[in-house]
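Escalated from tier 1: FE2/S2 (inorganic) cluster holo job.
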Amino acid sequence: MNYVNYDEIIEKYPRDERFILAMMQDIQKEYKFIPKEALEKISEYLDVQMTRLYGMATFYKALSLKPKGKNIIKVCAGTACHVRGSALILKEIEKQLSIKSGQTTEDGKFSIEIVNCLGACALAPVIVINDKYYGKVKPADVKEIIDLYRGENNE
Ligand code: FES
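Tier 2 regenerated the structure:
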């Protein structure tokens, strides 16, 4: 990963609390999570309490304080997907990766997230890996789909 200096991201914004969220979003985009050191920089730059920054980082779903896997598997738990067995799909993904939703595999390759309706209900049950949608997924398909992301391109 191409690490940039946190300062570069943070200091392109004025010293104004209105930009806290924008700073965090930029850091999240660059690092895929918000390292503690980055929060410390924001705290110092804007003179705001760390507890407040932690509060924001945990409140906004798009932000994460923990590193996420290279491949993010989102399992839809919306009504249409739920009715069509998304729980079984989730269970199979968790089994294949030996982690639970909200966790990341030890090799850092996969994270599992449960999300609300992904807007593709006609294809329920739906999972999304990174930006790719997989519809009408059956538990028996899960291994094959995950294997696509285990390959060398994802080393
Ligand atoms: S409920 Fe899953 S895509 Fe809408």
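Residues 46 and 69 are 30 Å apart (CA to CA).
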